[in-house]
Amino acid sequence: MVSWYSARWYIEQVFRLLKHQGFGIEETELESGWAIRKLVIMQMTALLTILQMNIAYSQPEGGQPIDKVFDAKLIEVLHLMNKKLQGKTIKLQNHNNPKTTRWAAWVIGRLGGWQGYDSQGPPGVIVLKRGLERLSRYKSSKRCGYTVAAGRQVNASLFISSFFDTLVQIIQWLKQTADR
């Protein structure tokens, strides 16, 4: 019963990300239910990545392996960003294992405006969202050689498939950590 109640916090975070402070689903000017569903499905991929990072920060082992959440090219970009975002003092260094999602959450949190100090607490979901948006803009620039085609039509079934694959991975990972 307690584990189900603790899942409530993640559900609250999902709604927080979907609403005003996050993706602003309430402000959408789309009128048809189908269009709104497509929009939410596209946002769910980013939302799940944000939740994976948020969960990773609360896990002592650092959450899922980074390659389960990000592709190889994005991991390369994260390594470049990590070098730029680390401070000169020991307190502002990313001491997390670079093979974990927690390491990536530190980098993305810094991109989102989180100061990086342990005393400040972990980066929140809204900060992680901002950081993921900034990372997305950075990776789509030619500076890092990871260009994303702007304005390309995206197949909704691809997003649905990716969303459910990621959701299954999160559920399996949560079950594994709960069994420990």
Architecture blueprint of SSEs:
Elements: H1 2-18, H2 33-58, H3 72-85, H4 101-111, H5 125-140, H6 156-179
Average pLDDT metric:
77
Helix content: 55-70%
DSSP summary: helix tally = 6
Q: What's the CATH first level?
A: Mainly Alpha
User: How does the major sheet shape up?
Assistant: none
What is the correct CATH architecture? Answer: Orthogonal Bundle
Structural class, by secondary structure, is: mainly alpha
Backbone shape: globular
Residue fraction in strands? under 5%
Distance between the termini: 17 Å
Low-confidence stretches: 144-161
Number of strands: 0
Q: What Rg do the Cα atoms give?
A: 17 Å
**How many distinct folded domains?**
1
Query: The CATH topology, please?
Result: Transferase Inhibitor Protein From Tn5, Chain A, domain2
The helix/strand series, from N terminus to C terminus, equals: HHHHHH
Relevant terms:
mainly alpha, 6 helices, about 0% strand, Transferase Inhibitor Protein From Tn5, Chain A, domain2
Characterization of this structure:
With 180 residues, the protein is mainly α. It has one domain: Transferase Inhibitor Protein From Tn5, Chain A, domain2. 60% of the residues lie in helices and 0% in strands. The chain has 6 helices and no strands. Helix 3 crosses helix 4. About 10% of the residues have low confidence.
